[in-house]
Specification:
By secondary structure, the protein is of the alpha+beta class. It has a single domain, classed as NADH Oxidase, CATH 3.40.109. The protein contains seven helices and four strands. A four-stranded antiparallel sheet has the order 1-2-4-3, with helices on both faces. α2 (23-33) packs across α5 (105-124), α3 (53-62) packs antiparallel against α4 (68-76) and α3 (53-62) runs antiparallel to α6 (137-144). The longest helix is centred in the middle third of the chain and has 20 residues, at 105-124.
Length: 180
């Protein structure tokens, strides 16, 4: 994949084919995503891969805060990835105090970088992804057996796309940038 092509063409996918995604392909995606930069190279991103239909349905039904779109997205994708991060490392000193006034912001920042690396890698393998942020973290952790030492950053639907959405209109460079 040409990097710029992937950045410009990757889309949020909400309809998936029923084709299974192999463990080997998912491992290749994670292998690539683990090269995402992180605070002091802490590499705190963790990926819980859910292919069990009952577990996916449980998360959809009980951990999406009754947001029907996410319920449908989870149920329609062959794979659900729970992206979590080891808590209190990114942005923190070894003694647990915040290393900057931003505190835990860096944890979210690192999760976002890891998430995009995962999604771009998936795109390289012909897979589509959808990043979801409306969920009950405690319920997701309980259902997916995420340790207390981690925070859930995002849910990612993963599968072979059954749609080709057009790119939404983008803001002009002048609206999103300032040169000083």
């Amino acid at each position: 994949m040409e990097l710029l092509k992937g950045i410009k063409e990757r889309r949020s996918i909400r309809r998936y084919k029923s084709d299974k995604v192999s463990k080997e392909t998912i491992e290749k995606i994670i292998d690539n995503a683990r090269y995402a930069p992180s605070w002091k190279n802490s590499q705190t991103a963790r990926y819980t891969i859910i292919t069990d239909e009952k577990v996916k349905a449980d998360i959809a039904e009980n951990a999406t805060m009754n947001f029907s779109k996410n319920m449908n997205n989870i149920n329609s994708a062959p794979v659900l990835v729970v992206l979590s991060t080891v808590d209190k490392i990114s942005g923190y000193n070894p003694d647990g105090t915040a290393a900057t006034p931003m505190g835990g912001h860096w944890q979210s920042f690192d999760a976002g970088i890891a998430c995009e690396a995962f999604c771009l890698s998936a795109y390289e393998y012909g897979l589509g992804t959808l990043i979801m942020g409306i969920f009950n973290e405690d319920k997701v952790k309980e259902i997916a057996d995420i340790p207390d030492s981690e925070r859930v950053s995002a849910l990612i639907a993963l599968g072979y796309p059954d749609e080709s959405p057009r790119a939404p209109k983008r803001k002009e460079i002048s609206e999103i940038s300032k040169f000083i």
